[in-house]
Design the sequence.
């Protein structure tokens, strides 16, 4: 039995800890004792209350463990991964920090560390699927559409946040990068809306978001794009909030007190966005890959519709994100993946056995990616 430490006990961190605790000795750390109580009293998982923003604390906590899971908010992610690498510990991270993850590559190689980052659903499983097909065909186009939404649409926002509100807001303000005809294009977030229909979910609204991340550097594919999905009508009110300044990080003065608008906005939105006990969510995802494989045009379409598990009280975003992370964690613990350095998830998909393991691991937990394939001979 291996020893694993999970840094962060949010909704996804909790799901990760519970899944890994089935076969491993797990300890979870968070500054907030409330989510830790559920793990310790309900499931007997070791818990520690600690401030993970402190370098010495992190390094002292991880020193006796076989693997570290990073599940802190995005603004803490880069430094946390850095501290873990400097502690000579392998890590699987889902924080989706805004910094360039390859800035830590040389450090990870120096410390002989395997650091799998962005290991969630998207980025994460989308990268793994793309990495698998990129190894076996000449891809011309990659599109990824993904969204996590409440099962019940409730006015005024028709949205619930299942992770840090500030991390959610980042999706609405961070410039979106995509690749078109081999060139990186930068557009504002929420741009180029389009509508897609999903069985069970209905019609959803998609827009440009900065989800390609590492793929821009690691994949030589002429056309790649990732879009976030919400219920129709979302873009308009988000643009109004953004243009008014509610998402700004620049301080303003109110009655002699300086505040960042984004902090006030997050404080106001969190109660509106928080899932109430027993409320459910769903994750919808569509990945479209086309190109040539053995002189045959292939079009691969993966569809995912996953929803809240009422029996285990596990939200869908925790399932789809967390179980991708725990699948990869098991690959590392079993020494089936041991590449040194910063490893974005697309590296995992290269190996067919590892790809099959991840897909089956998710399937065993009810997270099913349904594949549709279209082939057409090109006569080349």
Sequence:
């Amino acid at each position: 039995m291996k020893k694993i430490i999970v840094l962060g006990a949010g909704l996804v961190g909790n799901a990760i800890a519970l899944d890994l605790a089935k076969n491993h000795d797990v300890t979870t750390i968070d500054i907030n004792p409330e989510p830790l109580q559920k793990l310790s009293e309900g499931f007997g998982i070791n818990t520690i209350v600690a401030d993970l923003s402190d370098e010495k604390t992190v390094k002292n906590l991880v020193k006796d463990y076989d693997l570290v899971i990073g599940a802190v908010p995005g603004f803490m992610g880069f430094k946390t991964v850095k501290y873990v690498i400097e502690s000579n510990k392998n890590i699987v991270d889902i924080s989706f920090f805004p910094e360039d993850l390859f800035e830590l590559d040389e450090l990870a190689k120096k410390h002989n560390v395997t650091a799998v980052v962005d290991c969630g659903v998207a980025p994460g499983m989308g990268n793994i699927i793309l990495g698998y097909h990129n190894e076996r065909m000449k891809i011309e186009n990659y599109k990824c559409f993904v969204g996590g939404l409440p099962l019940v649409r409730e006015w005024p926002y028709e949205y619930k946040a299942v992770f840090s509100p500030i991390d959610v807001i980042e999706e609405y303000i961070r410039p979106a990068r995509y690749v078109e005809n081999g060139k990186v294009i930068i557009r504002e977030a929420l741009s180029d809306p389009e509508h897609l229909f999903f069985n069970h979910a209905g019609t959803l609204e998609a827009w440009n978001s900065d989800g390609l991340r590492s793929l821009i550097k690691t994949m030589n594919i002429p056309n790649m794009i990732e879009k976030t999905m919400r219920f129709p009508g979302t873009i308009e009110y988000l643009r109004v909030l953004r243009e008014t300044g509610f998402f700004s990080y620049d301080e303003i003065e109110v009655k002699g007190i300086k505040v960042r608008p984004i902090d006030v906005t997050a404080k106001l939105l969190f109660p509106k966005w928080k899932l109430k006990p027993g409320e459910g969510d769903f994750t919808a995802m569509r990945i479209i890959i086309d190109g040539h494989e053995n002189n045959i045009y292939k079009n691969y379409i993966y569809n995912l519709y996953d929803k809240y598990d009422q029996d285990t009280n596990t939200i869908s975003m925790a399932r789809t994100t967390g179980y991708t992370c725990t699948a990869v964690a098991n690959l590392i613990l079993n020494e089936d993946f041991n590449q040194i350095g910063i490893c974005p998830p697309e590296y995992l998909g290269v190996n067919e056995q590892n790809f099959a393991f991840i897909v089956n691991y998710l399937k065993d937990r009810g997270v099913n990616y349904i594949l549709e394939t279209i082939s057409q001979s090109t006569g080349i």
Summary: The chain has two domains: 3-120+316-366, 125-307. The longest helix spans residues 316-333.
